[in-house]
Design goal:
Distance between the termini: 68 Å
Largest sheet: 2 strands, antiparallel
Number of helices: 1
Low-confidence stretches: none
Strand order of the largest sheet: 1-2
Helix content: 25-40%
Order of helices and strands: HEE
């Protein structure tokens, strides 16, 4: 009987931990791809053999801006 209570308590704690972790860090966050042109030391765009401008692309997460209260001005 005591072993059953320990297993139920452990199971509840595991479920609570998993629910907390998935709630705070959603896996379904929106992402966008941002590309930036590469430039040489003089500031000119780098081109490959076909004449296209080389780009560095990265995938970034979108963050929501939260509403807040206005900061009072100093007198």
């Amino acid at each position: 009987m005591q072993n059953l209570i320990k297993n139920l308590l452990l199971g509840f704690c595991v479920i609570l931990c998993v629910a907390t972790v998935t709630y705070n860090q959603p896996v379904w966050a929106e992402t966008t791809q941002v590309c930036v042109d590469l430039k040489d030391e003089l500031g000119r765009p780098l081109k490959d053999k076909s004449g296209k401008v080389q780009q560095r692309c990265r995938t970034m997460k979108k963050h929501e801006k939260l509403e807040g209260t206005k900061v009072p001005e100093k007198k």
